Task: structure prediction
Amino acid sequence: MSSRARFAAAVVGVVAIAFAATRVFAAAAPPTYHTVPVRRANVNDVVTITGAVRAATVTHVSFKIPGRIASRLVSVGDTVAAGQALARLDTGDLEIGLAQAKAGLGGAKAKYDLVVAGAAPEDVAIAKQSVDNAQRTLDATKSATAAQLASAQIAFTTLRTAYASSQTGFQVLGDGVPSDVTGVTSSFGDGRAALAQALIDFTSMSTVDITTAKAAIGQADAALANAQNDGQQISSALDQWRSARDGVIAAWLQFDGAVGRGADTSGAATQYQSAVLAYTNATTQLSATLTLASAEVTAAETSVTVAQGALNSSTSRNDASLDEVRADLLGFQGTATGSGQLGATVAGKLAQMATYAGVIADAVGGTYLSTQQAVASARQTGESAVVGAQNAYDAAAAVLAKAGAPARSFDVAAAYAGVLAAQAALDKATSDLANATLTAPSAGVVASFDAQPGELVAAGAPLIDLYDTSTVTLHGSVGETDVAKLRLGQTATVAIDALSGGAPLSGRVTTLDPVATVQQGVPVYGVDVTIDHPDAGIRAGMSGTVSIAVASVKGALVVPTYAIRNENGVRTVAILRDGKVADVPVHLGISDDDVTQVAGVAEGDRVLVPLLTGSEVVPTPAR
Result:
């Protein structure tokens, strides 16, 4: 809202208060009239904008290539011409690049000449020798890689065979251990039965030898009784051993499954190690219980030997009644010998199973996979080596074929393309060196320079701002009521505060914001007015005022702006006719600072206006 509009609103409020007071005091005070006539006058609607001067065009100047600032050739505030040097980069690397590009172009041209000329005889001979060497290398590579692969396959086959045979041996031996252990424990009862029969078969009168023999047989029976008691521990240890043996088998089966699926075997290997440890402990416990029982059988055998000695003494050997006892004792010895043999068999099987478990552990622990991977590695390495040797041979053969053939059109074209590429590289290096000097694209004033010598700058990074002082604008803002009156191209009068002694400047509206910016809750629109012929003393940032005549009517019917009231959206004025006040609706036209064009009243009508005396309002007549 312009200052004029705010003033008009305030005056309308005062008029309303005055008329209201008139009604309140009409009965108590005599009518007081203050009127002005409706008259004709020239009305000009002017939009006034305050703002600041700024350059119409700001050019951001930057290097086209990255580099380090070597020197600044201008300072902020300098006026520069189009094409004037502003700054330079360090050109050391660029000069080297230019020299390299020149050398590259020379090499490309030489290669082109060589291709066009074709190969010399000595070049053909060298190419033939290269083919022969490549053939020998290919043959040797195939032979060596085949031998390495065969060796890796043999190692893996040997390990896999040992692994599989150890698994089979472990299972077969393990299947026989329980029956052997049962045979050992069963022999204890068989031995005691033989000893009991021997005691029954004594029929001779008691002699010293018979007494000695019976006592020894009793001792043997006691030892076997102890062995039978140990049999319970053997049975428990055997159950634990079976469980541990099954755990070992389950663990290697899990490993085999992982290998077959190509999955990670680390978990299976760890499980197998744990299973082997449990199996070793169970085997140790079983062996310990069998050893205790075996010691009792040995003690029984010793006692039986004593009894046999007594029955075969010089005084008893001819006693035929003792033959059955002697036979019983021989039967016991057979049983004891069988028990010992079974015990030895069990011990041998357990020892061999431990060996098999160790072989399996080595394989599961890494040798199986490492030898398997060695085969794959040997195959892959060999194939790669053969492919490399084959490629080398093919390349040598291609060189030979090319050396013996005339220059081909596409070779000539490729060589010529190399010349063009080298020329392009030279052109770029030349351009980069030229771009190391930053020049002004147009005339202007240096407004900012954002780098110092020695600093690195990126390509395209804004470095210098140039203000084009040939065209300046005054930028300000207006409210939503005034922006509706403005159009692009409207003429304007510009007054610069700092140039108070100069004549007003002409201008035109060049920019209107399409969207409002809210400032302190009020929407405003930016407006740019370009000055037609800017004074040389104008500088960016100076404040000024713009006046834009948006409408003009000559000889219009006007009333004072502050005499117009707004009641429920209807604009009215109070007219004094025949001593009475009447509210007359009016249509509004344009306004200036003092009066407003109206329609609905006649020239000469008396319009009531508030009489302002200090802060007092003199009442107007009541209706």
